[in-house]
Amino acid sequence: MSCVVPRRKVMPRQARRSAVALAMTVCALTAPVAAFGASAHDDQSGALAPERFDASARLGPPSVSGHDIARHFVGVSVEWTLTDRYMGSNSRPDFANLLRNLGSGVLRIGGSSQDQVPFDASAADSDRFVTPHDLARIRETLNLVNSTGSESGEAREPDWVTVLGTAMAPTTPAFPWRTVDHAVGFVRDGVAPIFRDDAGRRDVAGIALGNEPDLTYSGDLVRYLSEFPAYAGAAFINQWPRVVPASSENIGTWQSIRDRTINTRWFWDWPAILDTVAPAVKDKPGVLGPFATDHFYPLARTCPTDPYRCPTIERLLSRERMDNFDYQVYAHATEAARRGLGYRMDETNTAAGRGAPGVSDVAASATWTLDTLFNAACPQPPDQPRANADCHVGATGVNVHNAEVRAYFFPEEGNAYYNAIRYDPTPAAGPPTPGPSYYALLLFARLAQGTTGLHPVTLDVTTPAGASVTAWEVRTAGADRRLFLINKGSTAATVNVPSPGALVEIDRMTPHDPTGAGRTLDAGDVQIDGRPVAADGTFPGLEPTLTKTDGAALPVAIGPGEAGVVTLHDQYAETVREATVGGSVPATLSLSLEAPASFASFTPGVHRSYQTSTTAAVTSTAGDATLSVADPSQAAPGRLVNGPFALRQPLQVRANSGPLAPLSTEASSPLALLTYTAPATSDAVAIAFRQDIESNEALRTGIYAKTLTFTLSTTTP
After folding, report:
1. Amino acid 32: pLDDT
2. Integer angstrom CA distances of residue 30 from 535, 554, 605, 700
3. Cβ atoms of residues 235 and 253 within 8 Å
4. Residues 377, 381, 385, CA angle at the centre, nearest 5°?
5. Least trusted range by pLDDT, from 299-308, 566-575, 686-695
6. How many degrees, rounded to 5, is the angle at CA 326 between CA 473 and CA 220?
7. Backbone φ, ψ for residue 608 (5° rounding)
8. CA distances to 43, 303, 349, 442, 564 from 296, in Å
9. Cys bridge to 208: 243, 244, 304, 515, which one at CB 3.0-4.6 A?
10. 551 pLDDT more than 90
């Protein structure tokens, strides 16, 4: 096995630029596989589009206000009857990798199954009961995903937390076990023994009491509100965070909800519901704080009596369906905030009733999911345009639902069409695999989750194609601006992006048609930067295209069903801006990296310093010049990474006989390697790398790598 980066020598060239930057990947493989080399390559500009454009993005000034996107924003919801399929011994490692790829989030276990499948502490492990075996598998999965403490032993916020659902619904002849005592037994004999230690308690963001009570209580709000205190205040339950009410709404237009021309269930009763439940929810909040929850589905699986509910790609991606979602989220998140509660959409997907083939299991579902995540974080109420332009109201997270194709007790029949993570329905219950909407969670988690300054971006549309594009802007920890462009249409569009002189990265979530037929929205698969998730559930990482701009608008082409993420590294503007130089000698800055850099295999359990080197060739006609190196990645800046794993010690670099110095942990702070006080021609520079590995450092099989940017710059060209 080897890690190969195409090697291309960059020939000296004349230019009027004040800086030139090259990217170089440094990586190594853990034992017993040999290490690979690294090489330099030109800046890539494959994202540039033709001169025509369909829309222009109207970015706000750098000081524009916006909102934070919570660290645990993304999440998945899994029915109780699928815990074996996702978290059994054969599936758990790969499922944990799929969660790890997302960084942090919420694993909700529940849904309608929590009101239909009884808990029995003494029952054998089966799909017919919730048992301590199921809870143990959830804890084992969280242990795999999380680091529950720092090296000093101090407690830390876990990366992944869980919401555990139990029944709260009226007793019926078919469900005689639905009682307060049953819920108490679930917590006392199931949750408490598995999660009673400090780390386990931090992992539990809440006990969800009931699922969609607007349906299970048949609209009897008085009965629901009268029974809630008995459940929430019962022994054992009252010692844990509680989450409610997980209500749903009928599928209809926002106007029909506003005018109450359809059955709105409990939509307008939310203030009364929250007034009753808020004291208990706020009494013992979990690591995510106190929050209430909602469900939303834009379509139904079938529509024999109501054509409005019929599932099609066009309806799914229409502005009208998102208006309905925004209307609900804005109204209910506002009411929750007035009572000091967060608001989470803890169950949603492309269609009620387990999705629809040709709509929910194709690339369109990824496009819808990505757009839904942003609209949940910053809903734009259709009846109050611009009322939430600063995103002061919104959800703190979204859980995408996963279920069986037909009924809870028959997982062997296969996956629901909308599953973001597909389980193995065979008796082997092997590794889960990602569906199209998983890639939307992945792109959002990598590039939006945990950012600040979220706000919608206005697009000045010039052609019909541009009308299908939605846009959002965020700020990264390094103060870079990041623009998300989502094409919900069936034709390509080009968006002109205002761009001051900057280094620009462009990542893409793109439909992938394995059949070669060229399908887009109806393609059966999705990739990010041309990369799929690996067979073991790991993701090799983002690989954006790179380009430099000189202050002109940057045209970005977005294909049907594609999302493009444009990151503007404004702090690099001075290093890439063009400058006029007079005289008979053209201004020249040239930088090339010659031989690949190779580390030996990293050996676990041995304290060792690994060293390797490469050679750079520098030509400069400037009065002075500086050779520097930076790690522009947001993932563990300064350290080699292997998927979600990073080495403890930063990578050290030096030029010639200079001292070894660690790469900065701030992506915006390059490390100066060598200074020139006079012109140089084909100056050979020895660049050395050192990586320290501690004897007790855990190493993950695979490639530890990082793409570094070497820059030759001058202030006096």
Report:
1. 28
2. 19, 40, 12, 7
3. no
4. 115
5. 566-575
6. 150
7. -155, 150
8. 43, 17, 7, 21, 26
9. 243
10. no
